[in-house]
Amino acid sequence: MPGWQILVAAAASQCGYTPQDEQLEKVYEDYKDKLVIAGFPANNFGGQEPGADSEIQEFCKARFGVKFPLASKVSVKGDDTAPIYKWLTSKSENGVLDAQIGWNFGKFLLDENGKMIAYFPSKVKPDSEEILKYLK
User: Fold this and answer.
1) 11-26, pLDDT tens digit by residue?
2) Catalytic positions, please?
3) Nearest partner of 16 among 93, 101, 125, judged by Cα
4) CA distances from 69 to 24, 76, 95, 104 (A)
5) Which contiguous run of DSSP H or E holds residue 97?
6) In CA terms, which of 52, 64, 69, 83 is 20 to 30 Å from 13?
7) Residue 41 phi/psi, 5° resolution?
8) Tell me: the pLDDT tens digits for 38-65?
9) DSSP run (H or E) holding 74
């Protein structure tokens, strides 16, 4: 049985993938004994996360029942990329893989020691077997 896992997801409130917030919450509830989910709102793609942190928190809670932690809004690409995303997307930093975040809801899975396990692009749903196989 694996130890704790951490799933890091870039999020946005006005994206076609926004319903993944509900799926993330369900996975968070179903696997809370071995999984932490951390959402990082980002406004890098099409201006789909224009709100302030408090507005984002309220929207996610009211619309999708989100209880998993949401960080303050960050940049996930470009010159102002947040340090965590520099680490997540660069093999020279994380030692495992390079990842190009193409849109909101790209997801990274880490083990309990912070070692990179995998990257999943936006189209991979949080409740897909592609992700859940790591949690079983």
Assistant:
1) 999 999 999 999 999 9
2) 15
3) 125
4) 11, 17, 26, 17
5) none
6) 83
7) -60, 140
8) 999 999 999 999 999 999 999 999 999 9
9) none
Residue 111 dihedral angles phi and psi, to the nearest 5°: -85, 180
pTM of the model: 0.93
With b for 16 or more beta-carbon neighbours within 10 A and e for fewer, the 95-129 pattern comes to eeeebebebbbbbbbbeeeeebebbbebebbbeee
pLDDT of residue 7: 97
Residue 39 to residue 105: CA distance in whole angstroms: 9
- C-alpha dihedral, 18 to 33 to 71 to 80, nearest 10°: -90
Hunting for tokens 């809004």 — which residue is that? 73
Confidence of residue 1 (pLDDT cuts 50, 70, 90): very low
Q: Which amino acid is at 84?
A: I
2 pLDDT band, cuts 50/70/90, is low
**Mean pLDDT, the chain, integer:** 94
Biggest CA–CA distance in the chain, Å, is 40
Query: Which residues, in sequence order, are CB contacts of 136 under 8 Å at separation 6+?
Result: none
